[in-house]
Automatic annotation (TrEMBL):
Belongs to the short-chain dehydrogenases/reductases (SDR) family. It comes from the Bacteria. NCBIfam families: PRK06181.1. SMART domains: PKS_KR. Pfam families: adh_short (PF00106). Residues 7-190 form the Ketoreductase domain. InterPro entries: KR_dom (IPR057326), NAD(P)-bd_dom_sf (IPR036291), Sc_DH/Rdtase_CS (IPR020904), SDR_fam (IPR002347), SDR_family_member_7 (IPR053011). This is SDR family oxidoreductase. Coiled coil: none annotated.
Length: 264
């Protein structure tokens, strides 16, 4: 894809954070947007904030309602007659020790971050195969490549995404379908505030690393470039992305660095 200008883009998790920022950046490129999340009122606000609201459709969606997903896929296609790009962005994080985390919290993290993403992808995949064209960009995390204390369930779900989408890429390259895994580092969003504690309630507080992270608009711009370049993986952040390479060549060193940093 040389340019994303004018393409039809379906974004999940579009009511805030990375998804909202993507909507504004793609709106500048005259893209036709399908915005999804559970929060219809916030989606309407995002639409109204776009310069070309006539090119924006709202599709309320709970990614954990797996049975409804095939119909949601058909609705997404019906808005503009086709979809060019799916951006899987819906997700939730976690901040709790394994010993203090209810099993139900792990189930929710897998349902939202992994199975929900798989369900949305499967809903649009036959359309992409039929058209012999399509691009799936999935927002993972650096935590999808290595792990950290307090994030066991989140890391597990993000690791699972890589296994699934690496397989999808191999199976459907022949169908003209591209897959880009996007691995953000610390981005200035509410991800830490919304992160689940061990009992399933929201943490409701920010952390310094997230608060001082890359501006979300900058992340959105880099993510769009990664899609245009059809990158297989894109690491987006500041110095924290070096951890990818430390993990690859010096895993024991990264283990010590993370334990010493006590990032929560």
């Amino acid at each position: 894809m040389k340019s994303i200008n004018g393409k039809v883009i379906w974004i999940t998790g579009a009511s805030s954070g990375i998804g909202e920022a993507l909507a504004y950046e793609l709106d500048k490129k005259n893209c036709k947007l399908i915005l999804s999340s559970r929060k219809e009122e916030l989606l309407q606000q995002v639409k109204n904030n776009c310069s070309h609201p006539k090119n924006v459709r709202i599709l309320p969606l709970d990614v954990t309602n797996f049975e409804a997903m095939p119909q949601k896929g058909r609705e997404a296609i019906s808005f503009f007659g086709h979809v060019d790009v799916l951006i899987n962005n819906a997700g939730i994080s976690q901040r709790s020790l394994i010993m203090e985390t209810d099993f139900e919290v792990y189930q929710k993290l897998m349902d939202v971050d992994y199975l929900g993403t798989v369900a949305v992808t499967k809903a649009i995949l036959p359309h992409f195969v039929e058209r012999k064209s399509g691009h799936i960009a999935t927002v993972s995390s650096l935590m999808g490549m290595f792990s950290s204390p307090y994030r066991s369930g989140y890391c597990g779900a993000k690791h699972a995404l890589h296994g699934f989408f690496d397989s999808l890429r191999m199976e459907h390259e022949k169908d003209g379908i591209a897959v880009t895994m996007v691995l953000p580092g610390f981005i200035a969003t509410d991800v830490a505030k919304n992160a689940l504690k061990g009992d399933g309630s929201a943490q409701n507080k920010d952390d310094d690393a997230t608060k001082n992270g890359m501006p979300v608009s900058e992340l959105a711009q880099k993510l769009i470039k990664a899609i245009e370049k059809k990158k297989m993986e894109s690491y987006i952040g500041r110095k924290e992305i070096l951890a990818i390479y430390i993990k690859r060549f010096f895993p024991k060193l990264l283990h010590k660095i993370i334990l010493k940093s006590q990032v929560r």
